[in-house]
């Protein structure tokens, strides 16, 4: 049972049309990596390159949701969800990715089946067009997102195919998932596909000081053109909404009394979040703090791009997991710095920890920081927030034992964070319209392979059919929302 005393006063504080459920991504759950003429994505290539993925695993099978979607929808229904957020695999729909390349009927059919199954079970689909899996053919053809001129028409064409075929049933579209994590992990650190960086021990090619900003610009501009297409050709008739989902953790000053640390924390939020959010929601341009540090390494919006990007999202799609303490640096910024010349720390000046450790090195539980971040976003951008991801791993989840399935660490995480959502609505007046927990089942966690379990459902990865075992957190989340969402 969710601890009712902590949330008692939160009964019915969320809107009656509040959407809640789970989020996933195609590469992490589908499997069927080359089934029915699917083309390769950069993640297939990456995972099939030795030593790239921590446990040597690949997403070839992931958790087989390509085959088990009916079972999964039934399980989700038993969890009480009202919505499900998933992503489409571009190379399943257009195997070679480009605007002149053939569309794969079998790929589209899979997504039609999934969407129909959801709708028949009263679950609203939230569909992400791009969750990191660029078609390999486009990477080979012209360098993927490094080539804005070639890439943008291909992405817009892919979006058009999806709107045309699925838009009669999909009313919530997300263009990009976390453009910032795609650029930073893929082109700055080089630890995600397409594995580019300045670190020659790790990557054969790349330039961490320029490419992340070029790729980020391509994401924003191609997002804006896809939204323009939707608004001009589809939105009037299909009556859906479209936007982008940004990542962002909260930054707290290491020494809350030091103005330099206060500034550093704000600069960290701007480099991490406003990098993408200011162009879309505030100014049509990058934050001044980024321009000051990066100069012309940060691309310039043309007048047309700026106009198109500003206002190009019907909502603020928000993914967030944790909070860091941030301390200013007295030295000049490194050429490969992407965070605003700061240091990120686990404890503050007084030695207070940023939260209990999960099983993921960067992630610690901190619901108070989450509530502050909701307020920061609401104050800066003033547009309804759709929380599209939030969740945690927990230590020692190795087998579906009674103890592991009674996942108290994850339960406490969700009680804290979902409570923070409700308090931000009730006490701070923030407009929040959805909450998607990450994630439905344990899945293939990118370069961490099968080692990081974020699911409210345990998956036996060894078993041939990737057997699912519900964890208790799934029940607790249902109880929390049944209590907090207003009954009509
Ligand atoms: C998100 N960070 O990535 C992704 O959207 C998911 O696909 C992923 O499985 C999930 O979070 C858990 O990792 C992030 O370092 C990766 O702050 C890293 C960070 C945030 C989000």
UniProtKB/TrEMBL annotation:
Matches recorded under Pfam families: Glyco_hydro_1 (PF00232)
Q: Which SUPFAM superfamilies match?
A: (Trans)glycosidases (SSF51445)
* Entry's Gene Ontology BP terms: cellulose catabolic process
The chemistry this enzyme catalyses reads: Hydrolysis of terminal, non-reducing beta-D-glucosyl residues with release of beta-D-glucose
Which InterPro entries does the UniProt record give? GH (IPR017853), Glyco_hydro_1 (IPR001360)
EC no. given is 3.2.1.21
The enzyme class is hydrolase
Purpose of the protein: Plays an important role in cellulose degradation. Shows hydrolytic activity against several glycosidic compounds.
Q: Which PANTHER family match?
A: GLYCOSYL HYDROLASE, PUTATIVE (AFU_ORTHOLOGUE AFUA_3G12600)-RELATED
Q: Which family does it belong to?
A: Belongs to the glycosyl hydrolase 1 family.
UniProt protein name: beta-glucosidase
């Amino acid at each position: 049972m969710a601890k009712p005393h902590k949330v008692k006063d939160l009964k019915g504080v969320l809107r009656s049309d509040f959407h809640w459920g789970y989020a996933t991504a195609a590469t992490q759950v589908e499997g069927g990596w080359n089934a029915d003429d699917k083309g390769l994505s950069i993640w297939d290539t990456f995972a099939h390159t030795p030593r790239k993925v921590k446990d040597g695993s690949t997403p070839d099978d992931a958790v087989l949701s390509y085959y088990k979607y009916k079972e999964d929808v039934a399980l989700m229904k038993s969890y009480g969800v009202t919505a499900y957020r998933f992503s489409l695999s571009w190379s399943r729909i257009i195997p070679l990715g480009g605007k002149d390349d053939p569309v794969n009927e079998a790929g589209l059919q899979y997504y039609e089946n999934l969407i129909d199954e959801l709708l028949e079970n009263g679950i609203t689909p939230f569909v992400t067009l791009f969750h990191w899996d660029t078609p390999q053919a486009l990477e080979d053809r012209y360098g993927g997102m490094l080539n804005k001129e070639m890439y943008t028409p291909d992405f817009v064409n892919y979006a058009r195919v999806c709107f045309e075929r699925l838009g009669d049933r999909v009313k919530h579209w997300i263009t990009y998932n976390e453009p910032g994590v795609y650029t930073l992990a893929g082109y700055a650190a080089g630890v995600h596909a397409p594995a580019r960086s300045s670190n020659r021990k790790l990557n054969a090619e790349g330039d961490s000081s320029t490419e992340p900003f070029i790729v980020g610009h391509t994401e924003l501009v191609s997002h804006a053109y896809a939204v323009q297409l939707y608004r001009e050709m589809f939105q009037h008739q299909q009556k859906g909404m479209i936007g982008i989902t940004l990542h962002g953790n909260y930054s707290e000053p290491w020494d809350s009394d030091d103005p330099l640390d206060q500034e550093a924390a704000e600069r960290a939020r701007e480099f991490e979040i406003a990098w993408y959010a200011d162009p879309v929601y505030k100014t049509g341009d990058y934050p001044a703090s980024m321009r000051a540090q990066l100069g012309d390494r940060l691309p310039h919006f043309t007048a047309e791009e700026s106009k198109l990007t500003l206002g190009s999202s019907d909502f603020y799609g928000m993914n967030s997991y944790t909070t860091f303490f941030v301390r200013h640096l007295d030295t000049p910024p490194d050429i490969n710095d992407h965070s605003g010349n700061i240091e990120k720390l686990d404890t503050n000046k007084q030695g207070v920890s940023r939260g209990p450790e999960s099983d993921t090195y960067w992630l610690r539980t901190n619901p108070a920081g989450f509530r502050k971040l909701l307020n920061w976003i609401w104050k800066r951008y003033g547009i309804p927030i759709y929380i599209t991801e939030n969740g945690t791993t927990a230590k020692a989840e190795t087998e579906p034992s009674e103890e592991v399935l009674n996942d108290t660490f994850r339960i406490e995480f969700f009680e804290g964070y979902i409570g923070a959502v409700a308090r931000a609505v009730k006490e701070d007046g923030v407009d929040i319209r959805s909450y998607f927990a990450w994630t439905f089942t344990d899945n293939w966690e990118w370069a961490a392979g099968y080692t990081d379990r974020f699911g409210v459902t345990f998956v036996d990865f060894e078993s041939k059919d990737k057997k699912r075992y519900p964890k208790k957190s799934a029940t607790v989340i249902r109880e929390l929302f049944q209590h907090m969402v207003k009954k009509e």
